[in-house]
């Protein structure tokens, strides 16, 4: 069904529910002869998987990925790549309270309204468990981008009102090395100590908190994107807004740009000392454009921020309704994230990599 697919030339379809047998993805359109590093794909999944820290859901999933097709002797064959991730720790009985009562601010009611039936075990298809499949596909897209020298990296830029300055992303390898060191913090991402303390505080109160992830795409050549509907920032926005719990997307100067004068906002082009990629013959003194003009990349780093709402399932008694429309009460049970942003980092990167991989292929098809 169209609702389960994403992309034009580098296309993915995901399948599976949180408490079903498995989740997975099929990638169609990945060029042949791309080196597939299974260890890298697994590492990306490990960055997202649940159950690794007190500040994430306690559901323990190994998220071990199996490639079923499309790869032969370590290289893509140009045929559909299917990847499967079994579910191992569902414990569905813990969710029986949820059978016919709708959790406030989760997707329980809207799924019921749309289909008249819903898999109430955990979040079913609406659970962010599905994003593991996106991360697996995104890892393949990242391998494609790496082969062209393009890096996609992001970090937790805020939790509640705590903001973090951007780490030094100018050297992607050094950043990734730093992040590896951070794995001892159990969250596998670049999360400030103060943020971890705040998330834990909120968790102990049975509550949840929102936050933001900022993403940088470095060495993206100029010329990727489309002039009208599928503008690069429009496709990035759609990709980000398709991630569970996302409530905002801004690129470049974003909402702050609306408070600026043109004389402050314009990015002055200067000659590029060493052109990166095809067509990247300029750079700009500032980057309020976020690396995109007229829907097409201009060769500067692409920068955007994604805002996530606080997790809906809280461990407090809340007013709601049941499937008959009668007043009811619900208190969260089962295992839930107190804040999604630490685990959202690899999801944001995966979706960004999928968009750039798709537009890279589209760009190659756009001129002789
Ligand atoms: C990484 C990640 C983990 C999440 N974990 C939970 C969770 O444990 N409990 C929950 O209620 N929502 C969680 N969410 C959010 C829900 O999946 C999301 O709110 C729900 O599908 C409704 O969709 P919407 O918020 O996009 O409207 C998570 C989201 C992400 C990205
Ligand atoms: C299992 C994962 O996270 C889940 C995301 C999620 C949600 O509502 O989004 C709710 C919880 O699971 P369940 O679907 O069992 O209620 C989280 O544990 C995962 O990310 O792999």
UniProtKB/TrEMBL annotation:
<comment type="function">
    <text>This reaction introduces a second double bond into the aromatic ring system.</text>
</comment>
<comment type="pathway">
    <text>Metabolic intermediate biosynthesis; chorismate biosynthesis; chorismate from D-erythrose 4-phosphate and phosphoenolpyruvate: step 7/7.</text>
</comment>
<keyword id="KW-0274">FAD</keyword>
<comment type="subunit">
    <text>Homotetramer.</text>
</comment>
<dbReference type="InterPro" id="IPR000453">
    <property type="entry name" value="Chorismate_synth"/>
</dbReference>
<dbReference type="GO" id="GO:0009423">
    <property type="term" value="P:chorismate biosynthetic process"/>
</dbReference>
<feature type="binding site">
    <location>
        <begin position="309"/>
        <end position="313"/>
    </location>
    <ligand>
        <name>FMN</name>
    </ligand>
</feature>
<keyword id="KW-0285">Flavoprotein</keyword>
<dbReference type="GO" id="GO:0010181">
    <property type="term" value="F:FMN binding"/>
</dbReference>
<comment type="similarity">
    <text>Belongs to the chorismate synthase family.</text>
</comment>
<keyword id="KW-1015">Disulfide bond</keyword>
<feature type="binding site">
    <location>
        <position position="54"/>
    </location>
    <ligand>
        <name>NADP(+)</name>
    </ligand>
</feature>
<dbReference type="Pfam" id="PF01264">
    <property type="entry name" value="Chorismate_synt"/>
</dbReference>
<dbReference type="InterPro" id="IPR020541">
    <property type="entry name" value="Chorismate_synthase_CS"/>
</dbReference>
<keyword id="KW-0057">Aromatic amino acid biosynthesis</keyword>
<feature type="binding site">
    <location>
        <begin position="125"/>
        <end position="127"/>
    </location>
    <ligand>
        <name>FMN</name>
    </ligand>
</feature>
<dbReference type="GO" id="GO:0005185">
    <property type="term" value="F:neurohypophyseal hormone activity"/>
</dbReference>
<feature type="binding site">
    <location>
        <position position="294"/>
    </location>
    <ligand>
        <name>FMN</name>
    </ligand>
</feature>
<dbReference type="GO" id="GO:0005576">
    <property type="term" value="C:extracellular region"/>
</dbReference>
<dbReference type="GO" id="GO:0004107">
    <property type="term" value="F:chorismate synthase activity"/>
</dbReference>
<feature type="binding site">
    <location>
        <position position="48"/>
    </location>
    <ligand>
        <name>NADP(+)</name>
    </ligand>
</feature>
<protein>
    <recommendedName>
        <fullName>Chorismate synthase</fullName>
        <ecNumber>4.2.3.5</ecNumber>
    </recommendedName>
</protein>
<dbReference type="GO" id="GO:0008652">
    <property type="term" value="P:amino acid biosynthetic process"/>
</dbReference>
<dbReference type="GO" id="GO:0009073">
    <property type="term" value="P:aromatic amino acid family biosynthetic process"/>
</dbReference>
<feature type="binding site">
    <location>
        <position position="335"/>
    </location>
    <ligand>
        <name>FMN</name>
    </ligand>
</feature>
<dbReference type="InterPro" id="IPR035904">
    <property type="entry name" value="Chorismate_synth_AroC_sf"/>
</dbReference>
<dbReference type="InterPro" id="IPR022423">
    <property type="entry name" value="Neurohypophysial_hormone_CS"/>
</dbReference>
<keyword id="KW-0288">FMN</keyword>
<feature type="binding site">
    <location>
        <begin position="244"/>
        <end position="245"/>
    </location>
    <ligand>
        <name>FMN</name>
    </ligand>
</feature>
<keyword id="KW-0028">Amino-acid biosynthesis</keyword>
<keyword id="KW-0521">NADP</keyword>
<keyword id="KW-0456">Lyase</keyword>
<dbReference type="GO" id="GO:0005829">
    <property type="term" value="C:cytosol"/>
</dbReference>
